[in-house]
Amino acid sequence: MENNEFDELLRKAVAKRCNTRMPAGMEARVRQKFNSRRHISWGWIASVAAVIAAVIVVPNVSNQNNHLDSNKRQVNTPSFFVEAGDKTELRLENSFVASGQLRSNIDEFYIKYQQ
Amino acid sequence: MSQEFIIGLRAKKPEIQTAFVNEYGPRVHAFILDVVGNACDADELTADVFVKAFNAVDKYDAAKSSLATWLLRIAHNVAVSHLRHPKLPTGPIDQTIECAETESDEDPRIEILNRAINLLDPNERALLHLHYFENARLSDIAYTLGVTEGAAAVRLHRIRAKLKTIIEKENGKQRI
Known about the structure:
The complex is a heterodimer.
Chain A: H1 3-17, H2 26-76, H3 87-114
Chain B: H1 2-10, H2 14-36, H3 39-56, H4 67-84, H5 95-99, H6 108-118, H7 122-133, H8 138-145, H9 149-175
Helix pairs in contact in B: 1-2, 2-3, 2-4, 2-7, 3-4, 4-8, 6-9, 8-9
């Protein structure tokens, strides 16, 4: 088959494939999509803002919580250098625990001494 | 005219957008129909192409391509992307042939060629369309497909050879 004949055949075949016309009202469909995409873009902006807020705010809150937790841990450790407020009660409690331990140690020593 | 379109589209004038769709719509629709092979999908994707074009018109560079070539490049990307990740269930490719008007005195080899074209890669179908339907220059074909001119020329040569072999085989069978 000659190249020219083949090219002409191919041209006809491709033209036949595109024989269906574009539907009427395409411009209205495009306009509808274009406008709805604009709304979506606002939604997209809102969702991005939400993600940014989640990334920035949540770690800060959790850091604050961690800070509080670390304070609690500090409070719970027996210390006689706690200075003020409601922590005084804890200091006293620790003192009692310590004094009770001391007393039991003395009692034990006394029993051994007597023996 | 294309300069008026560019200015109007950048200003987002509705009447220019409508005129733009009416001017280039049939070409874009024909191109997508040829690549995708399904009329319903082609309608939807054609609308998508214009929406993308409206949104991206600020990036259009007249020094690189004509407005039509730029639009066909968007159409090519939309069509190929659709075939890779279909949002909607795509219909069988043969529907196109059923939709098309058939002529009784038509050369039977055209039907054979059409079946062979359906078996090609979407990029290959796009290339055939640009060459045989749009009569596009090789540089425009290369720009639309995102390849070099050399690569486009080689592909076109291979596709023609492949299709020619199919036609000649079929002719041989018919003679026997």
